[in-house]
Amino acid sequence: MKIDEVRAMTADQLAESLLNLKKEQFNLRFQAATGQVEKTHRVNEIRKDIARIKTVLRAKKAA
């Protein structure tokens, strides 16, 4: 997910995608613990996407 896409979303859409990413991150953690992760790079991508969304949400709330 690119920053331009995140900035174009509304606050409700950001909250929804944040929830979905957190669920996916939770599932990937369990897969990593059991050694079943196929796409190991996805863990880092999700972490960075969550940070992007949180940053934009804070900026929108401050404005």
Automatic annotation (TrEMBL):
GO terms for biological process: translation. CDD domains: Ribosomal_L29_HIP. InterPro entries: Ribosomal_protein_uL29, Ribosomal_uL29, Ribosomal_uL29_CS, Ribosomal_uL29_sf. Keywords: Ribonucleoprotein, Ribosomal protein. This is Large ribosomal subunit protein uL29. The gene is rpmC. The lineage of its organism: Bacteria, Pseudomonadati, Pseudomonadota, Alphaproteobacteria, Caulobacterales. GO terms for molecular function: structural constituent of ribosome. It comes from Caulobacter mirabilis. Belongs to the universal ribosomal protein uL29 family. SUPFAM superfamilies: Ribosomal protein L29 (L29p) (SSF46561). GO terms for cellular component: cytosolic large ribosomal subunit.
